[in-house]
Design a protein that fits this description.
The protein has ten helices and nine strands. The chain is of the alpha/beta class. The protein has one domain: Alpha-Beta Barrel (TIM Barrel), CATH 3.20.20. Strand 7, helix 7 and strand 8 form a beta-alpha-beta unit. Helix 2 runs parallel beside helix 10. The chain is globular. The model has no long low-confidence stretch (mean pLDDT 96). Bound molecules: 3-phosphoglyceric acid. 3-phosphoglyceric acid binds next to strand 9.
Length: 210
């Protein structure tokens, strides 16, 4: 499946760092119940790959991707665990080559016009805009739209309930990513209901924008 097909109609990708494997399945279920079935499990914790495997096996309706992919072999490890897409904070030639030849469609990170041009040259027109807030926010994406009209962005980094609609209203933004729908405190407390509520609020905000 291509990234475009996979993410069609998905306005928000929760970005998750799962510390305790036992949290993976209830957290994923809470997000799916709130209307956010496409999840990015970042490779920032030792539990990440097992979390992908558990969600893939046990959470009906979830589509699991891997995040914080830095090296080509991260793609293979994540695909073996059951991930169906990959997200990276940036892009290297090695990673681009591996992704284009490999098992998982990649959403590579870009922050500047040169990085966006490079991503396009390497074959990626759908990219992450990271770190979105620090790299100029919605104003930066508005400014690059006329010069890189074929590029489509998923802003991530500092996206929140307060600003997600502003990003999604831009014609060159196809979704946003962020951790605000699954706050660490709610995960630690096992407050899955709070996470379902945050997810459905995000879906509601996205619908108003669409
Ligand atoms: C990412 O991993 O893409 C971002 O660090 C998530 O950023 P956020 O925590 O500001 O949403």
């Amino acid at each position: 499946m291509t990234l475009e097909t996979l993410l069609k109609g998905v306005p928000v990708i929760p970005v998750l760092a799962i510390r305790d494997l036992a949290q993976a399945v209830p957290l994923a279920r809470a997000l799916v119940a709130g209307g956010l079935p496409v999840l990015e499990i970042t490779l920032r914790t030792p539990a990440a790959l097992e979390a992908i495997r558990a969600i893939k096996g046990e959470v009906e309706g979830a589509l699991v991707g891997v995040g914080t992919v830095l090296r080509p072999d991260d793609l293979d490890r994540a695909a073996a665990a059951g991930a169906v897409f990959a997200v990276s904070p940036g892009l290297t030639e090695d990673l681009a080559r591996a992704a284009l030849a490999g098992p998982l469609p990649l959403l590579p990170g870009t922050a500047t016009a040169s990085e966006m041009m490079r991503a396009r040259e390497l074959g990626f027109t759908a990219v992450k805009f990271f770190p979105a807030a620090q790299a100029g926010g919605p104003a930066a994406l508005k400014a690059v739209a006329p010069v890189l009209p074929e590029m489509r962005f998923c802003p991530t980094g500092g996206v929140s309930a307060a600003n997600m609609a502003e990003y999604l209203a831009l014609p060159n933004v196809f979704c946003v990513g962020g951790s605000w729908v699954a706050p660490d405190a709610a995960i630690a407390a096992g407050d899955w209901h709070a996470i379902t509520v945050l997810a459905s609020e995000a879906v509601g905000r996205a619908v108003k924008t669409a």
